[in-house]
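Please decode residue identities from the backbone states below.
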């Protein structure tokens, strides 16, 4: 993906939030600053992943940097983007019945986990990587598959629509914990392969002291270890929210009992 294209994509992503915020304000709702900050954090993660130097190195030189792009695009950016959506937009989404029915199926935690596992494995399969990354359009398509997959994966955790009363904090924590196990297969495939798997990285001009095999091993370790801080930070946030909500409900129950 050319750098002007990266900037165009980043600016377009920022303008999407501006449009959503203006739409909410026209409906008489003020958009909290924290939502703009959250959306900005998501756009920043995408910009870092796609622009120089990460974008250039991951586009065909180092598998480890390519894996860092995956973590930024699929795991870090999506929850921030979803948190940046104004409440008014979520309410309008609830009124779109046909879309709501589709989302109820696609973003069910089991479906989201399954789709995430399948697409993560597919987008790290050597024929797919070598085939798509031979062109800028293919590389961009791979990035967008990661982004879409990440949004679907994080949707049950972050998005309030569709409403699922059973999707409690413990269930959402379990959803994220399951993801820490699902990437084990791809990690093992990359880490324990005796030969380099990706021609696009093996045939690239050497720019580091790492061999192609060592770079691939580092990529596998990044997938296994690098995603853990993101997922476990989210799990910790959910746990403390659950704790505070439980304390508040207990306190309200006591007030009613003694009232």
């Amino acid at each position: 993906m050319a750098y002007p294209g990266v900037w165009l994509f980043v600016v377009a992503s920022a303008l999407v939030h501006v449009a959503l915020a203006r739409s909410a304000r026209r409906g008489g709702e003020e958009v909290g600053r924290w939502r703009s900050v959250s959306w900005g954090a998501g756009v920043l993660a995408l910009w870092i992943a796609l622009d120089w130097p990460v974008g250039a190195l991951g586009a065909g030189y180092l598998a480890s940097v390519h894996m860092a792009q995956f973590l930024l695009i699929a795991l870090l950016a999506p929850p921030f983007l979803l948190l940046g959506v104004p409440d008014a937009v979520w309410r309008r989404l609830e009124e779109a019945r046909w879309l709501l029915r589709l989302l109820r199926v696609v973003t069910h935690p089991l479906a989201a986990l399954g789709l995430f596992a399948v697409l993560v494995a597919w987008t790290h399969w050597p024929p797919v990587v070598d085939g798509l990354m031979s062109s800028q359009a293919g590389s961009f398509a791979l990035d967008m598959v990661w982004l879409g997959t990440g949004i679907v994966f994080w949707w049950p955790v972050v998005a309030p629509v569709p409403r699922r009363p059973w999707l409690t904090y413990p269930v959402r924590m379990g959803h994220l914990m399951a993801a820490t196990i699902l990437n084990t297969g791809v990690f093992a495939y990359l880490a324990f392969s005796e030969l380099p798997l990706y021609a696009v990285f093996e045939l690239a001009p050497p720019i580091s002291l790492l061999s192609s095999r060592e770079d691939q091993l580092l990529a596998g370790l990044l997938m296994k270890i690098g995603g853990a801080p993101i997922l476990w930070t989210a799990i910790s946030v959910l746990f403390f929210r659950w704790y505070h909500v439980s304390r508040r409900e207990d306190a309200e129950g006591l007030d009613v009992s003694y009232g």
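Observation: The chain has one domain: 3-258.
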